[in-house]
Amino acid sequence: MMKNADMKGIYSALLVSFDENGKVNEKGLREIIRHNIDKMKVDGLYVGGSTGENFMLSTEEKREIFRIAKDEAKDSIKLIAQVGSINVYESVELAKYATELGYDAISAVTPFYYKFTFQEIKDYYNTIINSVENRLIIYSIPALTGVNMSVAQFGELFENEKIIGVKFTAADFFLLERLRKAYPDHLIYAGFDEMMLPAAVCGIDGAIGSTFNVNGIRARQIYELAQAGKIEDALKIQHVTNDLISAILANGLYPTIKELLKLQGVDAGYCHRPMASADEGQKAVAKEIFDNYLG
Ligand code: MN9
Description:
Blueprint: E1 9-13, H1 26-39, E2 44-47, H2 59-73, E3 78-82, H3 88-101, E4 105-109, H4 118-130, E5 136-140, H5 142-145, H6 151-158, E6 163-168, H7 173-182, E7 187-190, H8 196-201, E8 206-209, H9 212-227, H10 231-251, H11 253-262, H12 280-294
Parallel strand pairs: 1-2, 1-8, 2-3, 3-4, 4-5, 5-6, 6-7, 7-8
This protein binds 2-(acetylamino)-2-deoxy-D-mannose.
2-(acetylamino)-2-deoxy-D-mannose binds next to strand 8.
């Protein structure tokens, strides 16, 4: 059996509920976590990612979110803590904290903004994971970070046996296929929910997505049907899913998912400025989206 196979599955990239002033709304955050566990039936949560509006938060707020998520989920599902930051010392602190809390793995986005060399990126990953007794999943999202790594460079990172996989948030299926063939024992998670089926055909081990907070049941169906080789059935569900995702993206990704949660009684709160929360027009569209796809 594949090493680290315990980490396979469907993970929601956890949204965070904020109050109007950008403070974490603990009650709301707990409700989002419960909704994911009880209603979306996900295998795990990816805490502190893009969807968690993480890169706008202080270290203290990131710690608070890790603590609340673990306290609410306990050991009922898998938990991955995204600790990446362009301050590697902050990442180390967060990696230690998440490990103490009992997170099943940590993850770190490729360091962004400055054009770091690959040697610098490698130093960053080894520094983070070698500071803790845990495992690390690379978070690759070139569209937001500008960092593109080759098959060989992933291989250099995977030389550290504590680096167990990658969250692959890209539309590059040639690269995905090459990684799958080259590293059959590493975990590859699809990061774009709208491309889960083609990624599943390439042999992913799971998926991590924002839309699973509201569409987790369909996401699992796509994944499981694809794994069973039932591609046509999976495609039908991907089509409906992508009608939903297209509508969400056109109305504003995170604000709309928060409104869709609120329509189900989950106190998903505000977005964190400078990200704007849904206005009245977006709320009305969210209601239509809900009625069309989730009601
Ligand atoms: O975690 C998410 N990536 C970002 C992965 O939000 C940047 C995806 O789930 C996308 O939100 C989703 C919509 O494009 O696929």
